[in-house]
Amino acid sequence: MRVTIFGTGYVGLVQAAVLADVGYDVVCVDVDPTKVERLKRGEVPIYEPGLERLVQENYAAKRLHFTTDAKHGVDHGDVQFIAVGTPPDEDGSADLKYVLAVADTIAEHMEEHRVVIVKSTVPVGTSDKVRAQLEKRLKTRERKDLTFDVASNPEFLKEGSAVADCTKPDRIIIGVASPETEQVLRELYAPFNRNHEKIIAMDIRSAELTKYAANCMLATKISFMNEIANLADILGADIERVRHGIGSDPRIGYQFIYPGVGYGGSCFPKDVQALIRTADEIKFDATVLKSVEKRNNEQKRFLVDKVMKHFNGDISGKTFAVWGLAFKPNTDDMREAPARVVMEALWKAGAKVRAFDPKAMEECHRIYGDRDDLVLCEEQDDTLEGADALIVITEWKNFQAPDYRDLKAKLKEPVIFDGRNIYDPKVVQRYGMTVYGVGRRSAA
Ligand code: UDX
């Protein structure tokens, strides 16, 4: 079986590399010639552990190819993945123009049966639209003799562990309309389905909704915990004790109940919003999802509110050391990152920022450019020079055990605002410092 993947973004590129690595002959098609040239040189545009090596090795082994030539791509693959972006349009619903353009391209060039697999995260009903687009184009070509199948195969990879997630998936969701299509996808994923059954086959609409339900459930867990943490703060309880207490119930579990400064990234914010819009379109009031989104937007301001309170409402002229810019550790991604909301609020209030992140410095510079109120420091410690206080936004490993004596000596005020509860208040206090965590009795 030969594979073609349209779109060399996060999902497309990781999937392509992992499929090539088990032996498939994979062609990746992208409309961006610069990106294609860079990939051919082995340059991976995103930071993702293990990905660059996988791309380079499989490209060298001639199992992985990159091209802008869509016709070549359509000729090549028995299966054709659509893995292009679905950016939110103005009202928050997923914009399908790239997905449908690929469907159109496939129908424009195909000369024999093709299985079209929708991998992009798309609203329920999109696979039907892909089917209609293919039919329309084949009709204008007067090639109604050509047959195709459409399948939905959502992706569940996490940034920072994308290669591992894709190589050893928890589950492989396949949405199909016929046993024949199911068979094609079963064959395709057989190398990843060894030891125990991971394939869960269902109808197309259920597969499409499964993707949103998974991300929205996780986002709900986080917003719920953030709400309880905010309550704990005011009630004088410690959310870390509460978290431990409830996580021990296997029905709740320990995962994804870490309070903090809100969720970011390319998936949760976008997917929660898109499902709210889908519900709106069918006049269904998604009250839970709307609250999840609202809580998250407010949560991103949590640290700023603490900072303002500590400095009696005036931080103009102050300088803050900021540790962590990426939306989570082990990535350089700053999409919807809480750090952006925090920094922008600090700037608005007249403060300056000295920031450090192990991977996202270039990305931060790309977003904000050169400005007087932002210094991007090469070393973590450099951020402390002349800083009034420290704000920690992402829980990178390197931030977990700082030299508190040094912090105390360098900061003008011995205060840490800890957006991820990585510091034990008792330990910090022993060094004569104060830490404001999330839901850790620091409301006063
Ligand atoms: C997520 C899903 O986990 C993945 O299955 C899906 O395919 C894409 O979306 P990702 O966006 O890469 O993956 O990151 P994830 O590790 O899930 O974290 C998302 C955000 O939630 C981060 O900002 C993280 O800091 C935050 N988070 C996570 C919390 O605030 N608390 C938690 O307990 C867990």
TrEMBL record:
Molecular function GO terms recorded: NAD binding; UDP-glucose 6-dehydrogenase activity
EC number(s) stated in the UniProt entry for this protein: 1.1.1.22
Record's protein name: UDP-glucose 6-dehydrogenase
UniProt enzyme class: oxidoreductase
InterPro entries linked to this entry: 6-PGluconate_DH-like_C_sf, NAD(P)-bd_dom_sf, UDP-Glc/GDP-Man, UDP-Glc/GDP-Man_DH_C, UDP-Glc/GDP-Man_DH_C_sf, UDP-Glc/GDP-Man_DH_dimer, UDP-Glc/GDP-Man_DH_N, UDPglc_DH_bac
Domain of life (superkingdom): Bacteria
SUPFAM superfamilies: 6-phosphogluconate dehydrogenase C-terminal domain-like, NAD(P)-binding Rossmann-fold domains, UDP-glucose/GDP-mannose dehydrogenase C-terminal domain
Record-listed substrate binding positions: F156, L157, K158, E159, K211, F256, I257, Y258, P259, G260, G264, K328
One of the GO BP terms on file: UDP-glucuronate biosynthetic process
Statement: the UniProt record of this protein carries the keyword Nucleus: no
Family as reported in the entry's similarity comment: Belongs to the UDP-glucose/GDP-mannose dehydrogenase family.
Domain UDP-glucose/GDP-mannose dehydrogenase C-terminal: residue ranges: 321-425
Organism this protein belongs to: Oryzicola mucosus
Record bears the keyword DNA-binding: no
Residue numbers annotated as active site: C267
Pathway: Nucleotide-sugar biosynthesis; UDP-alpha-D-glucuronate biosynthesis; UDP-alpha-D-glucuronate from UDP-alpha-D-glucose: step 1/1
